[in-house]
């Protein structure tokens, strides 16, 4: 039964349109809503709304739902609309009146936001761990091949000497910055929205600090209107952080594709990570890297979509904001997967030292020759012209 059930039957077409895919995507949120519901039940017990026995029965039942969700046996139907209704329906069926009391001093908006915040915190932590694993893969790659020199490019033309070590370290350093952005984002969203109702409070004084502490939030998000207005804003910060990570994944994939071309031959890909052609029997294609490169644009499109959805909305809750949930969840899945794949790819790349050395043509050392003359006392601009003439002849 829907939490807002009235004495009329909702048009089926409207139901399908408004529910959309929430009853599917919400499965990820089941554990988080259960955890939040346990904290809320403890608040209700402290307020003498629930007896000690009712609290115990609710906690037992919520832990049962947690276990069932881990095994994929907890069911959310389209008629439920979302995991929050499915959980309450289950509680009412199992523990009767105690289940009917759980929604006291709580809105479904409370539940959605609290579950999402807990989910976001966990997923950011998971992405940070994946970045650490990628950095380890980059460090191993650098340790094995970092000493090998190769040309650096500007304007897609040979410019100055570089090295595999410099290339690897560029991504390690950038990922360190990405971690700072993600950690800041985690700090931003680490605010408990529970107890703000539908955006204007719950009509009575409750101990919001208690539930915030029980749920491990760093602080309470005080203003109930801002709690609603922060939906879309906080998600936008998350997607911005993920695009920073994916921008590096995109660039690394582009470089590996370029350097592994026969015309370059700096990198060599293990055939086991390459696919073939249905018509050309000789082909070993870097599809995995091309998809990695393309996934960045998927995340960017989600960020633009989310910012558009959150724009021009008046203060308070608006149903449009429901559409921000899936882009964020998909973006976490994509980013984690891409970090895993890039780590794996790096373990399947070799550097051809001979080809790198052969590519270091005299022009690459032109700037060094200018500085040799500078050290002899020749002004830089004169030295530049002298060396420039050598390469024009």
Question: What does the model show?
Answer:
It is a single chain. With about 400 residues, the chain is mainly α. It is about 60% helix and about 5% strand. The chain starts with 11 loop residues before the first helix and ends with a helix.
Structural category is mainly alpha
What is the N-to-C succession of helices and strands? Answer: HHHHHHHEEHEHEHHEHHEHHH
Mean pLDDT: 93
CATH top level assignment of the largest domain: Mainly Alpha
- Give the overall shape: elongated
Q: CATH-wise, what's the superfamily of the largest domain?
A: Fumarase/aspartase (Central domain)
Low-confidence stretches: none
CATH topology grouping of the largest domain? Fumarase C, Chain A, domain 2
Strand content: 5-15%
Q: Give a short account of the largest sheet.
A: 2 strands, antiparallel
Q: How many domains, as an integer?
A: 3
In percent, how helical is the residue content? 55-70%
- Terminal Cα span: 84 Å
């Amino acid at each position: 039964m829907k939490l807002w059930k009235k004495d009329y039957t909702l048009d089926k077409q409207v139901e399908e349109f408004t529910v959309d895919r929430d009853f599917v995507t919400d499965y990820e949120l089941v554990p988080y809503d259960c955890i939040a519901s346990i904290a809320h039940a403890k608040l209700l017990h402290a307020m003498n709304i629930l007896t000690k026995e009712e609290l115990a029965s609710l906690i037992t039942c919520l832990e049962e739902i947690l276990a069932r969700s881990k095994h994929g046996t907890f069911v959310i139907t389209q008629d439920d609309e979302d995991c929050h209704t499915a959980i309450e329906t289950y509680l009412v069926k199992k523990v009767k009146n105690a289940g009917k009391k759980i929604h006291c001093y709580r809105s479904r908006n409370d539940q959605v936001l609290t579950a999402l915040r807990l989910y976001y915190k966990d997923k950011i932590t998971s992405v940070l761990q994946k970045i650490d694993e990628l950095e380890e893969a980059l460090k191993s790659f650098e340790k094995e091949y970092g000493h090998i020199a190769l040309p650096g490019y500007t304007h897609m033309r040979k410019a100055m000497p570089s090295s595999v070590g410099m290339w690897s370290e560029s991504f390690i350093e950038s990922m360190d910055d990405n971690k700072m952005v993600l950690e800041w984002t985690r700090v931003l969203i680490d605010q408990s929205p529970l107890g703000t109702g539908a955006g204007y409070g719950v009509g009575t004084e409750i101990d919001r600090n208690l539930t915030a502490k029980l749920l491990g939030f760093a602080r309470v998000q005080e203003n109930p209107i801002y709690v609603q207005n922060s939906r879309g804003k906080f998600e936008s910060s998350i997607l911005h952080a993920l695009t920073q990570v994916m921008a590096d994944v995109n660039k690394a994939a582009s470089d590996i594709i370029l350097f592994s071309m026969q015309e370059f031959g700096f990198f060599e890909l293990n055939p086991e990570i390459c696919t073939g052609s249905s018509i050309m029997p000789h082909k070993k294609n870097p599809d995995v890297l091309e998809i990695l490169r393309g996934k960045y644009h998927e995340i960017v499109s989600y960020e633009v979509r989310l910012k558009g959805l959150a724009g021009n909305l008046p203060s308070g809750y608006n149903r449009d904001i429901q559409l921000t949930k899936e882009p964020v969840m998909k973006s976490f899945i994509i980013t984690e997967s891409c970090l895993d794949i890039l780590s794996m790819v790096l373990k399947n790349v070799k550097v051809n030292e001979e080809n790198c050395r052969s590519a270091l043509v005299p022009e690459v050392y032109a700037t060094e020759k200018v500085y040799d003359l500078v050290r002899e006392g020749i002004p830089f601009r004169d030295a530049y012209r002298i060396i420039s003439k050598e390469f024009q002849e």
